[in-house]
Design brief:
This protein has eleven helices and nine strands. It has 298 residues and is of the alpha/beta class. Keywords: DNA-binding, Transcription, Transcription regulation.
Length: 298
């Protein structure tokens, strides 16, 4: 039997797109095919497999159990083919698309990415900083640096940094109230983003269960790095991750008045599609960032 008969690649490509997008219409738009042509290719692959792969419902399709088992394997196979062809053309390292949270991007990645580029001059890095959790199936991205618990279906994830938080402020601001000697002294100052749940967690751990933050003026700056700049300017006290501000601490622009640090269980992780785990540029970035942040694991 011919290989093309055993493996209907065109039909598999259509199946992969329809399964990923959850729509025959969207699959057709992505592949430049009519919905009728998509339906025909799906029928071909179902005949080849010998089982229905989709449940057809009014204005909606859903994968059958067989389809759910097949879809990730087909996606992985096409990713491997893509990487193999790109490698043969010599353009596998053309660009590495990184999505990262704004704080991690500005406070760690921007400071260190140069060493990755020196080690891999053929990989052009493109960085997008966003708090949005991207869908790898629908948006162009190779890897993402996310805040969370590390559990995302279909993705491989690696812990990068444990996130702990504690109040930080400028020494001059602390001196303006005669120093910060106990946690309640912080309440004499402007609290930057009193609606941040980190404040409630920290005050409770510090033995202040009733800080009455709800009545304070709301200030939401959108990123921890912005809050740090406001605190550095003496405009209030922010709750920050000290590991991101070693230079500010060393130069006396920020200081941590208490040793107490807390965590809400959400840390920084590197994530990427399991199907692309062996792509050379992803392997290169994974190995580099893990060695930078977890050198003892080598």
């Amino acid at each position: 039997m011919k290989m093309s008969k055993q493996f209907p690649l065109n039909a598999l490509r259509v199946f992969e797109a329809a399964a990923r997008l959850g729509s025959f219409t969207k699959a057709g738009e992505e592949l430049g095919m009519t919905q009728t042509a998509v339906s025909y290719q799906i029928k071909l692959i179902e005949e080849n497999v010998g089982e229905p792969l989709f449940l057809r419902r009014t204005r909606h399709i859903a994968l059958t159990d067989v389809g759910q088992r097949l879809a990730p394997k087909v996606t992985e196979a096409f990713e491997m083919l893509h990487d193999a062809v790109s490698s043969a053309r010599g353009d596998i390292d053309a660009a590495l698309l990184i999505h990262s949270t704004p704080t991690f991007a500005s406070q760690w990645l921007a400071r260190n990415i140069g060493s990755f580029q020196l080690a891999h001059p053929n990989i052009a890095v493109r960085l997008t900083a966003t708090d949005k959790v991207i869908d790898f199936a629908k948006e162009p991205a190779d890897v993402a640096i996310r805040s969370g618990t590390g559990t995302w279906p279909g993705l491989d994830s690696h812990p990068l940094m444990r996130v702990e938080f504690t109040p930080m402020l400028s020494p001059a601001l602390a001196e303006s109230i005669g120093g910060v000697h106990e946690p309640r002294d912080l309440l004499k100052l402007r609290i930057i983003d009193p609606g941040d749940p980190w404040w409630t967690l920290w005050f409770a751990a510090a033995g202040v269960p009733d800080p009455d933050l709800a009545g304070r003026p709301a200030t939401r700056l959108g990123a921890q790095s912005f809050e740090a700049r406001v605190a550095e300017a003496g405009q209030g006290v922010a709750i920050l991750t000290p590991e991101f501000y070693p230079d500010d601490i060393a130069l006396g622009r920020l200081y941590q008045p208490f040793d107490l640090r807390c965590s809400d269980g959400r840390d920084y992780w590197l994530a990427y599609p399991h199907a692309r785990r062996n792509a050379p540029k992803i392997r290169a970035f994974r190995d580099w960032i893990l060695s930078e942040l977890n050198p003892d694991d080598d």
